[in-house]
Amino acid sequence: MIYPKSFEEKTGFDRLRLMLKEFCIGDLGKKQIERIRFRRNFELISKLLDQTEDFRQIVLSGEKFPQANYYNPHELFKKIRPENTYMLPEELSELLSSLKTIIRIIEFFRKKTKDGKPLYPSLITLTDDVFIDNDIIQKAEKLIDETGEIRDNASKELESIRKQKKSKTTKAEKEIENILNDVKKKGWISDDLELTIRNGRLVLPVPAIHKKQIRGFVHDSSATGQTLFIEPEAVFETNNEIRELEVAEWQEIVKILTRFTDHLRPNLESLQKCYRLMGIADAIRAKALLALEMGGMKPKLNPNPVMQWNKAVHPILYMSYKPQNKHVEPLDISLDNKKRILIISGPNAGGKSVCLKTCGLIQYMLQCGLLVPMSDYSETGIFQKLFIDIGDEQSLENDLSTYSSHLYNMKFFLKHANNKTLFLIDEFGTGTEPRIGGAIAESVLLKLNNKKPFGVITTHYANLKALPGKVEGLINGSMLFDSKNMKPTYKLKSGIPGSSFAFEIAKSIGFPNEILNKAKNLAGAEQVDFDQQLQDVELRKKKLEEKEQQLLSAESFLDEMIDKYQELSDELEKKKKDILKEAKKEAKEILSTTNRLIEKTIKEIRESGAEKEKTRQARKELQGYTEKIENQLSEKHSKKPVKKAAKEKPVYEAISDNTPPKEGDTVRMEGQSITGEVIEIAGKQAIISFGDIKLKSPLDKLEKVRLKKGTTNTPGSVKSKTKYNFDINKKAATFNTDLDLRGKKVDEALSFLRKYVDDAILLGIRKVRILHGTGEGILREAIKDYLNTLPEVENTKPEHPDRGGAGITQVFFSRG
Fold first, then answer.
1. What is the pLDDT of residues 221-244, one digit of tens each?
2. What is the DSSP letter of 669?
3. What are the φ/ψ torsions at residue 675 (nearest 5 degrees)?
4. Fewer CB within 10 Å, N- or C-terminus of the chain?
């Protein structure tokens, strides 16, 4: 359940829907975007998120997904469903091109890894039950060519008709050309005039004063009546025959298209599934592109209500700030069964309402199957109901004031909320007398809390801030305020209520002290003291957090030292074991060899009968072996290990210029030796890049350094070059095969033409048309001369007279 009906407008989801439509290629994708709605089923939401995440990875990888010929055949299928109907040639052309695109989409989604597993497991399921009969593709390709014209050999009858038509057309054109040249020689018409078309027939533009000189049929006249368009009598009969052949040609084309439509009609249901796949794929691609635009990720999904969000940002705010390089403060929100309702307080314009809208919009996006702008290790849950009360709902028709409309919403919340509801209330209790408004708000909140829903509310009321700690399930949150510079930080801190800082803000803008003192007296010491205590608690907590951060840094450093010591100790122990192992091995070899030598010596003494010479020789050999072993051991243990030359490390020295670090400076953190680069300054904080790791540190804890003379930097510190690329699919989708150069000067026209031809060659276009007009023919000749210099241009010729004639040049590019 979503409440109210205007939920999408209140949270801004309607703007995201428009953005998604802009990312779509065709109408089918846009219709799928219109069908996006709030889902409650965990498995379905998981599937939708997986599909979008898979496509996000496709876009990031640079894989070329089919993006051309996204055609919506809805009207065509509706037209040809009845018997004895047929599609037009251009409809057949679009159908064929789009079916080929669908085949490429199916092949793309069905790609597999080297071990045979689906490369896109969540997308391959979309191709189940999707089938295109290859016979349809083959028949269509036999009927229509790349330009969308029915092929001559689509039928024998059509081929015969077109041969006759071509022959007679050539004859008529030749005859009328001869007549044109003849009347030019006689001076009846100007030399620069050419044949033109009237009523589908070639005619001569003849000055009215010479109309009696040429026998024929007058089809038209100029606006002034000075020129008549005459069809010469000599070609009249031939043109009539051509017109009859054109009628016969169209009748045959209708027969061909009717036969094909009859063949297609039984397959309409399966084809509709194919085009549904195209629309879904287009919509998923749009969702992936939007995710990349706003930093959307796939978080952990829990089937139960939970909100463990890390670094969540309002997507629309983020995208609007992105071109300006402005920072959006991320939010960390933690709600579970023990702490379900977050009560946010703090100064006006401090970000409370933005925080609330962020919660509503992101949860709605998630359950619509969109990736959300937060860290991927965040944990998100599923809610069955989503309620919001924000803005002014007063109605003249229903006699509702602003406060009445809020009460009406509260009544609805109380009636329908349960433990699977997320409700959002902005400025809870306002719109009426503060004490009464606060009391009603507290009563409503306590009643709502008994139903165990999750919620986020914003308020200034002290009685609501005092409830957490007394009532189970509630937790305070504050929008932090920089009391030193008197400006909001837009940071949400859970666990403590926020101060309104009303007196401090008034004082900072120069409000009279007399009025402020009077206001404090009127508010009462108890109220002022409570607000002051909130500020004091906030300051103490900030100091404790700084101390905690210092302890964490020290602990991290100590852990690093322990790890290094342990690593060194392990290494020494390993070396010790290796040395002992090697010594035992050597000793074993020595004993084995010695035993063999002693046994040999004893044997020789026995065999020689203890002869003195033999005994002396055996003892000498044994003594020689003993001395050899002793010398080897002495040499081995007297050698000192040779140390490897240490790699030269860069040595840095501090820079003492009494200026704070700025973006691009090399720095090191206080008490550390590792250096990094400042990549961003945010107030008194800096973000430093240490390779792939980024850390935030106060500016006053950083020390600027530079490379000491005589040392060199490490190869790893060299910045990588920027890579450039462009989307050739996007260029192909926007390419127009007609280039209009009419009205341009020669130099300007040739400049446009060069770039246009380069793009056409790059995209592999076979044929384009250059519109230059007739005029005096200067531009036409310049274009022709330039095209003749290009080896990629196979041929050029003027367009057919009934499609522009000499005012348009057709350009045909070679296939190689």
1. 888 888 888 888 878 888 888 889
2. E
3. -105, 150
4. C
